[in-house]
Amino acid sequence: MDAPPRWLTPEQQAAWDSFIRMQEKLIGRLSRRVQADSHMSAADYLVLAKLTEAGGRMRLTDLAKLLEWEKSRMSHQVGRMTKRGLVAKEECADDGRGALVVATPAGRTAIEEAAPVHVDHVRRLFVDALTQEELDTLASISNRVLAHMEKQPD
């Protein structure tokens, strides 16, 4: 027989609810700002940010893993971005089956123009609301949850 559900206590539920509400509201506002300021979707921004942080080229599967996206979602996103000239796909020299995603000059320009404005919004909506001690605590909590998740089955 299955064990009964381990329901959250009211305090646990309140913590979970406020975390989810904050995260959804923050990501929603930042996504709308990226779209309005740079005419890129939040997904475009994420792909270009991670790609350029990694030197401008990555295997498609590694990029998908980094973003926690399914390979099909990554492929569709890269296809849309390729049509707009933000990225290009290249064959992997060491693996004929793999594909590299490469930031184009237009993609590099787009992220270089969008990033400073995005950081201003992150600072205004998130960083400025917290003390350095609170930011340190949040980073510690986030890293602890991430490490815990790595040990759990997907």
TrEMBL record:
Its source organism is Streptomyces nanshensis
**GO molecular function terms noted in the UniProt entry:** DNA-binding transcription factor activity
According to the lineage, what is the superkingdom? Bacteria
Q: Where is the HTH marR-type domain?
A: 1-147
Kindly give the Gene3D superfamilies that the UniProt entry links to this protein.
Winged helix-like DNA-binding domain superfamily/Winged helix DNA-binding domain
Q: What is this protein called?
A: MarR family transcriptional regulator
> What SMART domains does the record tag this protein with?
HTH_MARR
Q: Which GO terms describe its biological process?
A: response to stress
UniProt xrefs under Pfam families = MarR_2
Q: Fetch the InterPro entries from UniProt.
A: HTH_MarR-typ, MarR/SlyA-like, WH-like_DNA-bd_sf, WH_DNA-bd_sf
